[in-house]
Sequence to fold (265 residues):
Amino acid sequence: MQSDPRALVDIAVQVGREAGELVLAMRSSAVPEFDTKSTATDVVTAADRASEQLVRARLAELRPGEPVVGEEEGGDAVEGLTWVVDPIDGTVNYLYGIPHYAVSVAAQVDGVSVAGAVVEPASGRVWTAATGAGAWLDGRRLAVSAASRLDLSLLGYGFAYRADRRKRQAETWAGLAPLLRDLRRAGAASLDLCAVAAGRLDAYAEHALGRWDWAAGALLAREAGAVVHLPGEAPELGTDATFAAAPGIADALFDALVAHGFGEV
Fold:
């Protein structure tokens, strides 16, 4: 079966858009039906489950026999081509009616992302990337910011669900705040990584992301020129850290994060 990254992007966009339409249509009925996962703050709605089921069903039709890893139904990344799906990234935003959430669909080969799409149901925006073909937003090619000074940089960040870890993370962000222009907490990792790709954020760092959170967004950031470290690649930042930054500030931010305990949270 064809595995050209650009053809895989087309599949990711197609199923991501279909799932996005479902998620948008279900919001009023799905929000009252939510459960929790790792903690009481880690929510999952009926729309999360329905979205992933739709993506899995469509991929089975369009790419039969290829395994799928999803946030809600699990699965394992294997050798060869695997699809990685976040049916709603930013579920808490979705729950509260904040329109900053996305459906993320990526294709990985031997665990490395080669194609991906991040679809925003509320706005209809579609972010895409393929290995060697750049990162794009609705047909416009993206490039990371030209930031060269940490004190004039905007950093996106996130929090873990466990209260004890959130406290330690907050201490790191408090230490970093005087070194930066500002910080932003938007609540959807895939879109934060896309924002780095578009130069809307100069950098982004977070712990405890699942593969589905970064599989498409990190590819966009990298294809747009960002320095990217995925979980396990930079032990100094912690074994589960995700990092993406414009090249002009990447080293300085990396060192500042380490100095302020980011790798120990």
